[in-house]
Amino acid sequence: MAGAAELTEGERSNVDRWLANPALRDMFWEQSIGDQRHAYDGARHVFGLGRPPEVVQAALLHDVGKRHAALGPIGRTLATVAHSVGIPGGRRMEAYTAHGARGADELEAAGAHPLVVSFTRHHHSGRPPDITVADWDVLVGVDHRY
Fold first, then answer.
1. Are 112 and 61 a contacting pair, CB within 8 Å?
2. What is the distance of C-alpha 44 from the center of its chain?
3. Is 41 in contact with 71 (CB distance < 8 Å)?
């Protein structure tokens, strides 16, 4: 999200409250400002719906694997297009297209809730059996909306 607004102090406080685990907080804050904004806006919506804490956390953390790619908006678009047509990319493009699996592995190692790990791993594919339809629909909806 080019030109995304940095999180305000109040929003930062919400993130810190929603992510009590310091390792998970660190992963969130290592994301680009655009990814932080995308994740926060989705999580705020999920929280407002009264969803359980792990669903809010899944909204906050599902893209943490993207931070390893260090690609801007144009690079991300090119990586997505190249991947969709089977053109091999470089190390950063491959890191971007594999962000779900890499992020899920990191989140699992850091002690994230299983729902957070599962949504992160599968959010660009199909709903796995360990996530309810209701939780999946909410999370996919905010991922596409914000």
1. yes
2. 14
3. no
Question: Across all residues in the chain, what is the average pLDDT?
Answer: 89
Mean pLDDT by 10 residues, the chain (146 residues): 84 98 97 94 98 98 87 64 66 70 96 98 94 98 94
- Residues in Cβ contact with 32 at an 8 Å cutoff, skipping those fewer than 6 apart: 66, 67
In 3D space, the residue among 76, 14, 64 whose CA is nearest the CA of residue 40 turns out to be 14
pLDDT digits (tens, 9 = 90+) for 80-117: 665 566 667 677 667 666 678 899 999 999 999 999 99
Asked if 102 and 94 touch (Cβ cutoff 8 Å), the reply is no
Instruction: Measure CA 138 to chain center.
Output: 14
Q: CB of 124 within 8 A of CB of 83? A: no
Cα–Cα distances in angstroms (integers) from residue 28 to residues 12, 18, 20, 80, 102, in the given order: 11, 11, 12, 22, 14
Burial class (CB in 10 A: 0-12, 13-18, 19+), 33: middle
